[in-house]
Structure formats: C-alpha cells, structure tokens
Fold each of these.
Amino acid sequence: MADVRPESMERITTAAQAQAFIAEQVAAVKEQVGDKKVLLALSGGVDSSVVAALLIKAIGKQLVCVHVNHGLLRKGEPEQVIEVFKNQMDANLVYIDATDRFLDKLAGVAEPEKKRKIIGEEFIRVFEEEARKLEDVNFLAQGTIYPDILESGPVKAHHNVGGLPEDIHFEGLVEPIKLLFKDEVRVIGRALGLPSEMVDRQPFPGPGLGVRCTGAITRDRLEALRESDAILREEFKNAGLEGKVWQYFTIVPDYKSVGVKNNLRSFEWPCIIRAVNTVDAMTATIEEVPYALFDKIVSRITSEVPGINRVLYDLTPKPTGTIEWE
Ligand code: XMP
C-alpha cells in the first residue's frame, strides 16, 4: 500500500463503508502474511486496538499482541486490554508488567526530555526482549494512521512509544489503517465491536502519566495522579462531557503547599486540572467547565486522594501552554 491517500478514496463515515474497508483489509492482510506470524505492540490506545481487532479477524492467533505496562498507564487500562483482547476476543496476548523496571530507571530523573527518552528507549528494549523470545515472527504490525504520515515539526520529542525495534529483522510491516484519519479509525473500531471506552478514548501520550507527574517521578505521587485522573474522568463522564471535551486530565507537580485537613495542618501536593479543546493539537482552547462540576471534583479529589490538599484549574490556552505540562 502506498503512503499517499488517493483522491478518489471516500471518507469512511458509515457502518457499511466500515464493513467494506474491513473486508478489503482482511483479504489484503491474509494475502500479505500467509501463514506467518505478526507481532503488534498493543498499547490499548485507539489505533493499536483497532489494528489488533482487525488482525484478529484476519489471522486470529497468528497475531501476537504484546501489551507492555510501563507503570504510567491510567487506572484500569491494562485490565481493560486483557479483558477485551484476551477474554473477549481470545487473542494471543502477552502481558508484561514492567512497572518496576521503568520506575527504577526514572528514579531521580527530573528533566522532561530525559524522562521521555528513557521511557521511549526502555519501551523498545522491553518489546525487543519479548520479540526475541517468540519464534518465527515475520511481520511487525503498527497502528500508523494518516496524520502520522503527514505530521511535521512537533514541538517536543514526540517519539511515539512503541517505535520500531531496531535490532530485529522483519520481513515487512503490516499497517492496515495507515491511510485513515482518526474519525475513520473510530468508525472502523465500532464496526469491529470494540467498546466505546476504547474507541472514543481521548488522546493519551506515549510516555503516559510520566509527563503529568512533573519532575522526578515518585510512586506515591504517581498514585495520587492516577487516582485524581480516574476521579476527573468519572465526573466528566457523569456530567455527559466524555467524547465532547477533546482532552482532560490531571497533573500532580513535585511541590507542596500548606493546607488544613481534618482540623490539622497539612503539607501536600496540589492537583492541577487541564481540559482543552482542539482540532489538530497545534493550538487549543480551554473548556468552560461548570462551577458545580468543579465543586464536586475538588471535593472528591481532596477527600479521596491521599497527598492532595488543593485543586487548581489551568486556564492557559495553547499557545502559550502546551497541552501536556512536560
Ligand atoms: P502538547 O503537549 O505538545 O501535546 O501540546 C499535543 C498532543 O500530543 C500529545 N502528546 C504526545 N503523544 N507521545 C504521544 O504519542 C508523546 O510523547 C506526546 N506528547 C504529547 C498530547 O497528549 C496532546 O494530545
């Protein structure tokens, strides 16, 4: 498949178009790989999940999915990947909990680009080690989409976690969604029966919570971040904002302030909420969150999350702020 989307290619919006695309790609993948094995780094994000579901339909257990938990995933994510792909789709899934390995490597590292580099490189290393253990894997599948091909000049080192292993030779790449835009990938995902939490999921950076636990990551602050993020997502969902706000998450920075909790002086981290809307992530505006919803979120985070005594809202559009804090 060429890397350029033909002008004649219709935008996929309907279930019927999705089924036609799936049938076409299933045939193409079967033709490409024959009876050989294909390896896929399955992060649980929209793109890799859609590729996994498509390839399971095409070649079943000839696909080997590797899900690396780098310890920087959101609450419930690894469990959902296992539930959907292993339990429901009966996929050939290798789950690796590499949390300790990543967090040990990241201990004491405060510089944002250094953190990203460690996470990206370590990911490839873990993935390569797993790939080497498997026998006769001939192809590498990737969730490349059209904007990845078109993308130019990122502000940060956006090396996507899950890059190409360098030391292993593959006969070829399997990239069935590389000519699709994100909205089309979602239509395909729905047609393949993936759950809405997976298909309509907001963007999540490769380095995960690592770029939101600012400075040197510690396990207790990472846990506070994961819990506050889960509360924010739950409350946005209850308020009907899921799928309407482009990206929303929390940040827990590496400094503390004085407060009062249960009539006692506390000295704890603040939690910063970020909720933005954008079309292409190059610029972003701030979501006007209703105060009543803020009230609820502040009260839940400060009472339910150990280590947090204050909640702030980031009012900065992009520019001058980037969407992520690191
Ligand atoms: P920034 O922070 O640059 O982010 O305004 C723009 C969009 O990109 C996401 N992002 C990343 N995605 N790997 C990714 O796959 C990364 O290293 C990375 N850094 C930022 C960010 O979440 C936002 O959607």
Amino acid sequence: MKVLGIETSCDECAAAVVDGGIILSNVVATQIPWHAPWQGVVPEIASRKHTEWIYDVVNEALKKAGITPAEVEGAAATAQPGLLGSLLVGLNFAKAFAWARNIPFIAVDHLLAHLYASRLKYPLTDRVTDKATDKAPTDETSCSCDKNMAAEYPFLGLLVSGGHSVICRAGNFDDVSVLGTTIDDAVGEAFDKVAKFYGFGYPGGAAIEKLAREGDSEAFTFPLPKLYKLDKQGNDHRYDVSYSGLKTAVVNQLEQFRAKPRGETETADIAASFQKTAVEILLRPLLRAAEDTGLNTIVAGGGVAANSYLRARLAEHRELRVLFPPPELCGDNGAMVAGIGEQYLLRGDRSPLNAAASARVKVFKKRYP
Ligand code: KG4
Ligand code: ZN
C-alpha cells in the first residue's frame, strides 16, 4: 500500500512514501541553519518554515517515489508529541491530502514511529548494487534486507532523542509499556545543552560525537546518578535515567576553565568524557531491563541512536542482539511515519479528519504502580 508519511513535529520538514515497508522516497528539509543562531529550536520559526516548505517537500517525495498524487493510497502524519504549531502544519496537510483524494488518513505517535524505523527497508537499487549479475532487481529481491533484519516482538525499545529517553517493552508496533524514562532532561537535550555552554556547535549531538573522537574519555570523571532505590513517593526508578547532574557537573567544569584558558585537547577530552558518561547512564538501566525481562533483543531509535559511541558500546554485549536504524532514519524523518502508518492502515485503522494534535507524550508515559 503506497502511504505518504509527513513529519513536522520539530525542526525537520519531512515527507516520504513507503510501500510494503520499502522506502520509495524520504525527503528531509532541515531547518538547522534557521535555529542555529539561537542554539536551539525556536517554535515560531519552526512552524512558519514548515508552512512555507511542506507543499514542496511533499511534492518532492512523490516525485522521487515516481508516483502521482492520485497513486497515493493512504496518508499518515505525526500528531504527537512535539511543538504544537509545527505538528499542526504536517497533520493538516496530510488530512487535506486524504480528504481531497478520498483516501484513508491516520494520525501517528512520533515515538512509536521512531521505534518502527529499524523495520524499514530500501529498494535494492538504492542501497545495494548487484555487481555479480548487474540485473535489475526482481520482485523477490527488490529490497535490501538489512543484515540486522526486523526484530521479532517482543523486544526492548531504546528511544533516545532531543526530547525523550525511554526504555520500553514493545509487544507490537503500537503496543508498548514504558519501563524507564528520564526524571529530568532527555539524553539528546544534555548533548545539546553541554555543546551550547561550551560553544561546540549546533546541534550538539553530532558536534560532540565528532569532537570526542580526538579526546580521552578517561580524562574527566563525571558522576553517574543513583536512581535505582525507591524515592520518597515509593516510585521505583530501577530503569529510569537522569541527566541534570551530569549536565551541571560538565558545565561546572567550564567555570574552572574560565580561570585558566583551555587548550584544544582539553576541549576534546571534555566532549569524550561527557559522551562516555551520557552513554553509561543509558546502558546501566538498559542492561538491567534486559536481564530482568529476559528480552535479549534491543531496538534503538531517535536522533541519539545515530551516535557511533553508543552503537559501539552496545555492540560489546554479544549476549544481546541490538538493532539500530541506518543513521538517516534515526533523526526525524517521514519514512518512519509512512511505515508505521501503513501498518495501521493495513489493519483497517483510520483516524477522523478532526483528529487533534498534542504537544504531550501520551503513549510513552511511565505509570508508577
Ligand atoms: O529524533 P530527533 O531528530 O528529534 C527529536 O525527536 O528530538 O533527535 C534530535 C536529537 C538532538 O538532541 C541531537 O543533538 C541528537 O538527537 N543527536 C545526537 C547525534 N545526532 C543527533 N546525539 C548524539 N550523537 C549523535 N550523533
Ligand atoms: Zn524525533
């Protein structure tokens, strides 16, 4: 089923076409240069740019997929969570598209879509060249089945982005229960804030990862949170994470540097030491969850899942099968929305054309007993 997916929850204006789980096109227009002067996403700018760009982005996605609007069989869009003004642009565009073409519409959850990303495949011609035969792909071999292949449900999900850090159990593409989450900042947010304080660049995640390659991750010791005991309300934080302590410690280090000028090595050392601790904070509850639940397949998603240090650290755990989407499907994109949208639509699910957008996390809320 050819599904158009639209994603405008934050600063990427994205649209894609997916058919049978295969990505026919995936267009992402990034707003990074517009937000970079503020070192963070400015909601007003984001929604205005989405409004200006969405028509062209969707058109390009259809063109790249080699189809006309009349060939689209379903429309999907992110409805939550995210910046409300931004969400409304993509959501309403998808609704209008579905109404005009008289095709089904489905509103999807951004985090469920991130978790779905690793199941998507590319047409063989895009990613793999069959040098041996040099033949056009046949139907049976028309997709690049990633060496990882799609994970069987249930598995453990690790969702790590600018707004979220979630460890969950996924029983199906739309059935998740949250085991742990952040009690303060998200991991991507910590990367962004540290980069902002130190002037490492924007967005912070990729900038820190690059700098860290030159640094010594043992040069500085930053604290790890101790959350696993019950708090005063009796909440169990066994699988939760916290980043505010790490962020404060790294920023305090900057105060010491102000007293004496820092050299280039120290800067890279800070990045490497921060990255190591940030990843360590995720790994501890994740490995604990794997052990407690007996689930040894982990599926990652979200912008921070592109981080090669995180990937390498998880790969050390031979007892686990860890699946990461390719880097371009880790950050926000329309393919993940079209992909999960197709699953809902094939099942017969539909959203009404008055479906609302919501800034708030709904599906991935941790419920304490
Ligand atoms: O999923 P995403 O594109 O948007 C949200 O849903 O939030 O994630 C963006 C986040 C940002 O905080 C960015 O700094 C972080 O992902 N990020 C990374 C890397 N690439 C993006 N963090 C660490 N390492 C990276 N390579
Ligand atoms: Zn995202």
